[in-house]
Amino acid sequence: MVHGGTETNSKTLPQYVAALSAAGGAFAAGTLLGWTSPAGVELKTRTDDFQVSIDEFSWVGSAMTLGAACVCIPIGILINLIGRKLTMLLLVLPFTIGWGLLIWAQNVAMMYAARFLLGIAGGAFCVAAPLYTGEIAQKEIRGTLGSFFQLMITAGILFVYAIGAGLNVFWMSIVCGVIPIVFGLVFVFMPESPTYLVIKNKDEQAIKSIQWLRGKDYEYRAEIEELRDTQKKIKQDQVSWWEGLSRPVSRKALAISLGLMFFQQLCGINAVIFYSAQIFKDAQTGIDENLSTIVVGIMQFIATFVSTIVVDKLGRRLLLLTSAIIMALSTAAMGVYFYMQDQDAESVATLGWLPVVSLCVFIVLFSIGFGPVPWLMMGEVFAADIKGVAGSIAGTMNWTLAFIVTKTFDNLRGSLGGGQTFWLFSGITVVGVFFVYFVVPETKGKSLNEIQAELEGKSTTTAPSTGNGTV
C-alpha cells in the first residue's frame, strides 16, 4: 500500500487542517441554510422598511436552492479548468456580494437576488469541497475528513440559530457575511489538490502539496508515480465527458450517487425541520420557539460529529441502513400523531411526547447517516475523468429536489393531510433501505481505484492502490 500512515511516516494533522479549512465554506453555507428560521418571524411581522408576506418569504427561503441547483454543473467544469483551491477562493466574492445585498435590501426583489446569489456560492461549495477533501486525504481517514463537510454545515446552522436568538436580522446578516471572508483568509494558505496539479503537469507543485499534506518525511515518490501513471492512462483512454458517463461503471456510480441524493431529500428532512417549532409548541413543552430550533441544531451538530468519528470504523452501508430504518419509523410515528390530531385534537392531548421524541430521533439518525454519507460517497464512487461533471449532476439533483420538497410541502399537507404526508416520506425511506442494501457498495478503507474495480465487478484485492486513492 502506497500510503499506510505509519509505514511511510505520513502525518495526518495537516490533512485535518486542510479539510477543516475547506469545510469553512460549508460553515458559511450552513449559516445561509439556517438564516431563514430566525429571520422569518421578524421579516413577516415588522412594520418599518418593508414587510415580507408569507408567500414572498417562502420564495426568499427557496431562492437559494434554485441558485444552488443552477451552479452545480458550471462549477464542475470550473474546478477542472482553474483548480479546486482557486475556485473555492473565488466563491468568497458571490458570498460577500450576496450578503451585502441581503443586509441592505430595499425591497423583496433584492432579497430574491441576494438569496439566489448566495445559493450559487453555497451550492458550488457542495461540489468543490467534498471533491477537494477526497483528493487530499489518505484512504484511512478519508471518511472522517469527508464527513467534515456535513459537520460544518450543521455547525453553521446551529451558529445562526444561536446568534439569531439575540440579534436582529440586520446584525445577524452582517455576522454571517463576515464568515466567508474569514474562510478566504484561512484557505488561501492551504495547498492545491495534488491530483489536479498532476493533471495540469505541475509535478513539482504536486510534490510540494503532498509534502505539505503528509509531512516532509513522507516518502512521496511512490504516490506521485501512481498519480502520473494514472493520469497517463486517463490521457491514453481519454474520452468526452458524455462517453465517460456512458461507461457501465460510470452509470452504476451515477445511479448510486443520484439514488442517495434522492432518498436524502425525500426522507422528509425539510418537512421535519419545518415542523420542528410547531411540534415543540403542540407538545406544550414550554420551550421557546427560538430555543427549540437551537435544541434541534445542537442535536444535528452532535450527531454529525459522532458520524465523523465512526464512519471509518463502522462503514458507510451500516450508517446508511441504520439511519434509514430508524428515520422511517420516526416519520411513521409523526404521521400517526398528525393523523390522529387531524381526526380529533383531543385524542393526542396526552401524546405530546410522541412527535417530540420522533423528531429528535429522526434528526440524530439523519445527521449520523443520510446527512453526511451521500456527500462523502459522491467524492468516492466516480472515476477522476468524470468526477467533476458527475458530482455536479448529483449536486444539481440534490438541490432541485430540496427546492421541490420545500415548495410543495404545504401543498402536500393540504391535499393529503399532515399524517399522510409523513407516511409518504416514511414509505419512500423504506424504499431507500432496499436501495442501500442491494445497490450501494461499502467503500470503507478502500482506495478510489479499489472502489472503481469493485463497481466494475473485479476483485478489490487485486486492484492497484494509488497514493492518495485517486483514479
Concise structural overview:
The protein is 76% helix and 0% strand.
What is the β-strand count? 0
Helical content class: over 70%
Radius of gyration: 22 Å
What spatial form do the alpha-carbon principal axes imply? globular
The SS-based structural class is mainly alpha
Instruction: Note the run of SSEs as H and E.
Output: HHHHHHHHHHHHHHHHHHHHHH
How many alpha or pi helices?
22
Q: How is the biggest beta sheet arranged?
A: none
- Identify low-pLDDT runs: 1-7, 461-471
Strand content: under 5%
Ends apart, CA distance between termini: 15 Å
What value does the average pLDDT take?
83
Defining key terms:
471 residues, mainly alpha, disordered N terminus
Description:
- By secondary structure, the protein is mainly α.
- It contains 22 helices and no strands.
- α4 packs parallel to α7 and α17 runs antiparallel to α18.
- The chain starts with 12 loop residues before the first helix and ends in a 16-residue tail after the last helix.
Helices and strands in order, then pairings?
Elements: H1 13-22, H2 24-34, H3 36-45, H4 54-82, H5 84-90, H6 92-103, H7 108-136, H8 142-164, H9 169-187, H10 194-199, H11 203-214, H12 221-236, H13 241-246, H14 248-266, H15 269-282, H16 289-314, H17 316-343, H18 353-368, H19 373-378, H20 387-416, H21 418-439, H22 448-455
Helix pairs in contact: 1-7, 1-8, 2-7, 2-8, 2-9, 3-4, 4-5, 4-7, 4-20, 5-7, 6-7, 6-9, 7-8, 7-20, 8-16, 14-20, 14-21, 15-16, 15-18, 16-17, 16-18, 17-18, 17-21, 20-21
